[in-house]
Amino acid sequence: MPICYHENSRTFHLYNDDVSYLMQVLPNGQMGQLYFGRKLRDREDFSYLVRTEERAMNSYTSEDRERRLSLQQVRQEYPSYGTSDFRSPAFEIEWQDGSRVSDFCYASHVIFKGKRKLEGLPAVYVEADGEADTLEITLVDRREGARMILSYTIFRDYGALARSVRIQAGGRGCRLERVMSLSLDLPDADFVSVQLSGAWARERYVKERRLEEGLQGVYSMRGASSSEHNPFLALRRPNAGERSGEVYAVSLIYSGNHLELVDVDHNHVTRLLAGIHPDTFSWKLEPGAVFQSPEAVLVYTDRGLNGMSGIFHELYRTRLRRGIWRDRACPIIINNWETTGCEFTEEKILELADTAKSLGVEMLVLDDGWFGDRENDWTGLGDWYVTNFQKLPHGIAGLAEKVKERGLRFGLWFEPEMVNKDSRLYREHPDWILQVEGRFASPGRNQHVLDFSRQEVVDYIYDAMEKVLGSADISYIKWDMNRYITECGSAAYPADRQGELFHRYILGVYSLYERLIARFPEILFESCSSGGSRFDPGMLYYAGQTWTSDNTDAVERVRIQYGTSYVYPLCSMGAHVSDVPNQQSGRITSMATRSNVAHFGVFGYQMNLTAVTDSEKEEIRRQIAWEKEHRDLIRCGRFYRLRDPFRENTGAWLVVSGDRREAMVGYYQIYREVNTGWDFLKLEGLDPDMLYSVNGGVQVSYGDELMNLGILLDQERFGIAKEDYASIILHIKAV
Ligand code: GLA
User: Mean pLDDT in runs of 10 for the chain (735 residues)?
Assistant: First the structure.
């Protein structure tokens, strides 16, 4: 996967077997972008792509009458506003004299094998230098002596590039007002943009719109990546679907405020920007100081949306997630939240543990309510130690021990970033919350956000958590975050640094994760934010899985997991079987459908197992046995979406093993329809020449037949229940 630099034409060409990315130093010294897309043969010169003709209403970069270079007319690598380009810029810097005009020109570059770590920020990584090459281009603004380093890593095996930017102030310092992680100029606007948007309990719904001239995009200014808009945006050709067609996509490895913006200009050039949301960001750089942007992953494929997801899944599963749990299945969990809420006793929990163990469950997770005076969500957050010994007479260590004696691992819930006013922590440190002097601090879920931009606050929470984790046998942490950030001010920073707080907050969260991971490398972390309000690649770097949604209704979950799968691998999506009527939707679905959905994620239970009937227990035993047998296939296999539950009455997906000898299909029907026509479900990813049996011989066919003709979904043959919300799993095995 070479990165070539052609000295004469000053052209950079990054390519692997799938994609090419071309840049050139423009006649004015700034960086131009020439191409990103399917792989091109390398050549010395692509200069014809730099247009230098005169056009009405343009301004130019020089007085030269022959070569009329207008930045408005060329595609640029990392554009600014203020000279001859009027479009949305990738960066904006206020200099000491109050001006915002910049001129960063090519100075030098380095090419090296592998990839550098990003200081204090999550990023994809390599395990061997041969997996990727990196190019770093240094640009200099001569007037200010400021430097900018544009970083590009191209992977050997994926149609993906990781990009980020470092800015170093010159001798006079400056203020960064916008630092996007990447900018991409595409030469036309014939695209449909695809976003993952929603809200609490309906996270990451797939939404599409045709691009038009002007601005369009998604963002968060909530202090977390948010369930409203995931830090992701794809541009697909109108004819691109799941199986084929061109797709460009960007995914930002960041958990705070973000913006993915598309600016289509009057010539239908599409500019795609992704990075920290500039409206809530301002960063003072002292002379010589450096700012590192988050990393963004840019993907191109001509294999449709499934092709795009395949790239993200592999990259994020194996080169973003870390630690010993990256390559292990998460134990099957029973979580007590939907059963007990905060009202439990040790006895109740142990009863749940006993039953869970007898059914084959592997870990018990004690959710909210174990610490301080936590009787409900008005009290206790911040006091990470047991004070209520009526509830937990033997403390956490004692309970963990008892759970372990029963043959289960033990996991624990924390919400480290939060505090209730009714807590010892708040009473002792009322100034430790994010707030603005003289303004009302808006509560959310009766709690406030701790000021994680301050080292002493992070240190305190680290010590408190370290104490609990160090004193008990704890295998797993569910790390929650149940409100967004308001009144983002800090008593610890001067006026001219208040604009840094949203980003500093997230850096504080990352640093706490990093320290806990270093101290407890065996602990499996799951991130959570009222369900999936912070389900983003930044979190996956620290916590390899995320609680996908508080909505555990199986029908709703088909959509939520379907949308989430656009970017995130199944091994990152917490999915539990819960009681019915469902706590959020009130819907009643069969036990089979609930587990048929949850199997396609990180499987577990969030139900009162002590209250289920004997026949339900038998069913749960079967589900757990199924999970143990097939979870490695689900975790590591290649995932394909087959039926879109946002458009159809059914949803379906498929996971195929690496050797293509085995596959598992999940098929979900919403309403039962009667007297329907032919229904063929076409599979993907199989070996066309391999003979497969479906569900132990109900059908035996070659892969080509299963993919091209499809499986005829006969209710009789596959035992699809005659009811709403019926579902089946089809097990495809080579014979
Ligand atoms: C959030 C989480 C839930 C549960 C509760 C506890 O809502 O998403 O799973 O942990 O908090 O308060």
Answer: 93 98 97 98 95 92 89 97 97 98 98 96 97 98 98 96 98 98 98 98 98 98 98 98 97 99 97 98 98 98 98 98 97 95 96 98 98 96 97 97 98 98 98 98 98 98 98 98 98 98 98 98 98 98 98 98 98 98 96 98 97 97 98 98 97 98 98 93 98 97 98 91 96 98
Strands 476-479 and 447-449, by their bridges, are unpaired
Instruction: Give the DSSP letter string of 132-166.
Output: EEEEEEEEEETTTTEEEEEEEEEESSSSEEEEEEE
Which residue among the candidates 451, 480, 553, 579 is catalytic per the annotation? 480
Chain centroid offset of residue 453 CA? 23
**What is the spatial distance between Cα 504 and Cα 188, in angstroms, rounded to a whole number?**
37
**Cα distance between residue 673 and residue 336, in whole Å:** 36
What letter would DSSP give residue 513? H
Centroid of ligand 1 to alpha carbon of 530 (angstroms)? 5
How many angstroms does the Cα of residue 319 sit away from the middle of ligand 1?
28
| 519-572 pLDDT tens trace | 999 999 999 999 999 999 999 999 999 999 999 999 999 999 999 999 999 999
Q: Do 77 and 150 contact (CB within 8 A), yes or no?
A: yes
Q: What is the pLDDT of residue 715?
A: 86
Question: 573: phi > 0 → left, psi -120 to 50 → alpha, else beta; which?
Answer: beta
- Span between the terminal Cα atoms of the chain, in Å: 38
Residue from 2, 26, 169 nearest 84 by CA? 26
- Is position 85 annotated as part of the catalytic site? no
Closest C-alpha to 497, from 294, 295, 296, 289: 289
Calculate the CA 468 to chain-centre distance.
29
- pTM (predicted TM-score): 0.98
CA torsion sign, 405 to 406 to 409 to 412? negative
Given the residues 133, 185, 550, 579, the one annotated as active site: 550
| CA dihedral over 682, 686, 690, 691, signed as positive or negative | negative
Distance of CA 728 to the CA centre of its chain: 29
Is 133 an active-site residue? no
Ligand 1 pocket list (CB less than 6 A): 337, 367-368, 413, 480, 482, 528, 530-531, 547, 550
**Closest by Cα among 119, 88, 84, 105 to 148:** 105
Cβ(474)–Cβ(403) below 8 Å: no
Radius of gyration of the chain (CA): 27
Residue located nearest, by CA, to atom 11 of ligand 1 = 530
Residue with tokens 């973003």: 320
Burial of 260 (0-12, 13-18, 19+ CB in 10 A): buried
Atom of ligand 1 nearest to the CA of 550: 8
**pLDDT tens for each residue of 160-212:** 999 999 999 999 999 999 999 999 999 999 999 999 999 999 999 999 999 99
Task: Report the pLDDT value the prediction gives residue 701, as an integer from 0 to 100.
Answer: 98
Q: Which protein residue has the closest C-alpha to ligand 1 atom 1?
A: 530
Cα(481) to ligand 1 centroid in Å equals: 8
Name which of 399, 332, 392 is nearest 362 in CA terms: 332
Query: Would you say the C-alpha torsion 472, 478, 483, 487 has a positive or negative sign?
Result: positive
What is the Å distance from ligand 1's center to 480 Cα?
A: 7
pLDDT at 651: 98
